[in-house]
Amino acid sequence: MKTTRQHSLLQLLTRHDTLTTEALASALGVSKETIRRDLKALQTQGKIVRRHGRARLLHTQQDGGEPFYARRKSHYADKADIARHALNWIEKGMTLALDASSTCFHLARQLPDIPLTVFTNSLPVCQEMARRQHITLICSGGRLERKNRCYVNPALAAQLKPLEIDLFIFSCEGVDANGEMWDSTPYNASWKAHLLRRAHQSLLLIDKSKFYRASEAKIGSLAQVTQLITDARIPTGQP
């Protein structure tokens, strides 16, 4: 019964692209609570994306995710606190890679002006680092995606050749029940996957709202991450 209903739910989303919880409940003749349970299960399986009381099928989309400024305001205090704990991993002389997440922006704002090299594709992080006199800033450059405030540059592999990345610090759109990390755009997912392979160590900064969620593009597995910093209870069997 449940499997049949979830299959019908997916068919509805295929036809309509996006629907509210209320509309799905009405169409399938069940309560909103039942639909919410189904949606949670389907999101955990990586089949749908849920946002603001609506659901849609998971598919590749170049312009997915919330705008940067909306993400920066969401869970502001939690992200700032997580970023503060990440400072313990940073030492003078290190080469860091920071992604374009709002949590890394919070980290950049707290980063002390000490001798470091910072590589990033984030415009807001670049603007913060430009204020530090002792930090060497390397920007990925490329085409600016204004919505996400990040640069898109296909020449990433060539840029990283001369760099030894000591620590890659990043966030993601979600981590599903299988420990797979997801991002809202294929390019950012690819960027993070490449840095995960390239860096000596990696640090995932993730607030409690990101667990048991999937998104547009898969980054990789939590097993690839050296350590995570979170305000949530760490899922059993994860680092």
UniProtKB/TrEMBL annotation:
Entry-linked InterPro entries: Carb_Metab_HTH_regulators, DeoR-like_C, DeoR_HTH, HTH_CRP, NagB/RpiA_transferase-like, Tscrpt_reg_HTH_DeoR_CS, WH-like_DNA-bd_sf, WH_DNA-bd_sf
Record keyword Transcription regulation present: yes
Molecular function as annotated in GO: DNA binding; DNA-binding transcription factor activity
Keyword check for DNA-binding: yes
SUPFAM superfamilies xref list: NagB/RpiA/CoA transferase-like (SSF100950), Winged helix' DNA-binding domain (SSF46785)
Key words of the record: DNA-binding, Transcription, Transcription regulation
Highest taxon listed in the record's lineage: Bacteria
Domain named HTH deoR-type: residues: 2-57
Protein name: Glycerol-3-phosphate regulon repressor
UniProt organism field: Phytobacter massiliensis
Highest classification ranks of the organism: Bacteria, Pseudomonadati, Pseudomonadota, Gammaproteobacteria, Enterobacterales
